[in-house]
Design goal:
Layout: H1 4-14, H2 22-32, H3 38-48, H4 59-71, H5 84-91, H6 98-109, H7 123-128, H8 140-147, H9 200-209, H10 260-269, H11 276-288, H12 303-309, H13 311-320, H14 327-336, H15 341-351, H16 358-383
Length: about 400
């Protein structure tokens, strides 16, 4: 419905019935409340004027409320006003004051400029100058036939709509029909009434701000239906506990353009020795950003070519890869490659820089011994060739 601030503005408009004319108050309402809020504002006024015995508003405030409810939809046909039944009911309410019923009848019949002269006076002046002898009150059936003949029926009406109660109930501390501002209601000493004169305006604003169009309807208890027993051979619905943990890929969206030069130099290093300037560039780039080793294009299968052509770069690359998951595969390729001075140099430098696996060292030493023995046999074969007869 309306917010707390709008409810305060609406109540202040109702309280100006003695200082301003009804027409001025209606014009001020149209300027302060856009058309999108007219229905909610009129619904709040409908709540405040539902029962004249509740005395939520004083007489002048009630007249201003009825005038706003009617004039908010004065540009449309009377039957198009969603609160036309409210106005007809107020005009036919035998409990209400005569001047109030007459005022609502004048609102319903004010279809021309001349018929709105009564709006050019204040609500207080209207009450003081009211002459009962100049007014007649038609029957309810006559007004309903006049204003309800073109009212379209509701397209859908809930069967429980009339059984709901308001979500705001009267204060039980205030006797019904008793105005809290009058001398008839005398609260106990030291106790301030919830709608007393001191904070009545705040209470009404609080009621309006918490008001809603939904009443408190009866609740229908719908118990859950019982589950059918599981038959033999019937498939059971399983709800496994899926507690997967997300693994972050730190290489995703990484900027690989920085390693383009290193990748190009590594590709050349696999084919032949690099000049000293190129070697220094590769080593400097790997030192500045160790993660470039993962984007240089080197694989375990290509390691033997790098070892034979550029052993210093191979040492630096293996040092940077020592904590990777592929280092075991690199060591396997290194220990199984053909024995050479460059491979021995690479292993020697690795042993003085990082901690190599014991099994790798044992296997490599064993391979070195086997390779040396093969070289000795091959050399003796060359020095002492087999004798061939003529």
């Amino acid at each position: 419905m309306l917010g707390f601030e709008d409810c305060g503005k609406l109540l202040r408009l109702l309280s100006a019935g003695e200082d301003k004319t009804v027409e001025e108050i209606v014009a001020e309402f149209n300027s302060k409340f856009p058309r999108s809020l007219h229905f909610y504002a009129c619904s709040a006024l409908d709540f405040l004027t539902t029962d004249p015995k509740e005395k939520l508003l004083n007489p002048t405030q009630r007249l201003i409320a009825f005038a706003i409810i009617h004039q908010a939809y004065s540009s449309q046909q009377p039957s198009s006003n969603p609160f036309i039944s409210k106005l007809v009911g107020a005009a036919c309410d035998d409990v209400a004051e005569k001047y109030e019923r007459a005022f609502v009848l004048l609102l319903l019949s004010s279809t021309s400029v001349n018929g709105r002269e009564f709006l050019k006076q204040s609500a207080a002046d209207y009450i003081n100058n009211f002459d009962l002898s100049s007014h007649t009150f038609p029957q309810r059936e006559q007004l309903q036939q006049q204003y309800f003949s073109k009212v379209q029926p509701e397209p859908f009406k809930c069967l429980l709509k009339d059984n709901s109660v308001k979500n705001i109930v009267p204060d039980p501390d205030v006797p019904r029909g008793c105005d809290s501002n009058s001398s008839e209601f005398d609260p106990q000493p030291g106790v301030t009434s919830k709608i007393g004169s001191g904070n009545k305006e705040e209470t009404i604003v609080g009621l309006l701000s918490s008001l809603s169009l939904d009443g408190l309807g009866p609740q229908w208890i719908r118990p859950l239906p019982p589950r059918l027993p599981v038959m033999d051979g019937e498939l059971l619905w399983l709800n496994p506990d899926m507690t997967h943990e997300l693994l972050w890929d730190y290489g995703m969206c990484a900027d690989t353009s920085r390693g383009a030069a290193v990748k190009d130099l590594i590709s050349k290093a696999l084919k032949g020795p690099l000049v000293p300037v190129q070697q220094e560039q590769v080593l400097a780039e790997l030192t500045n950003d160790p993660k470039l080793v993962y984007h240089c294009g080197l694989t375990p299968k290509k390691l033997p070519d790098l070892v034979e052509n550029n052993p210093m770069i191979a040492v630096e690359v293996l040092i940077k890869l020592v904590n990777s998951s592929e280092i075991k595969e690199y060591f396997t390729v290194l220990v199984n490659m053909e024995m050479s001075l460059h491979s021995m140099e690479v292993v020697n430098r690795l042993t003085t820089t990082i901690e190599l696996p014991t099994m790798f060292l044992h296997t490599y030493i064993s391979n070195c011994i086997s390779a040396c023995q093969g070289i000795k046999v091959r050399s003796s074969y060359l020095l002492f060739p087999p004798f061939r007869g003529s």
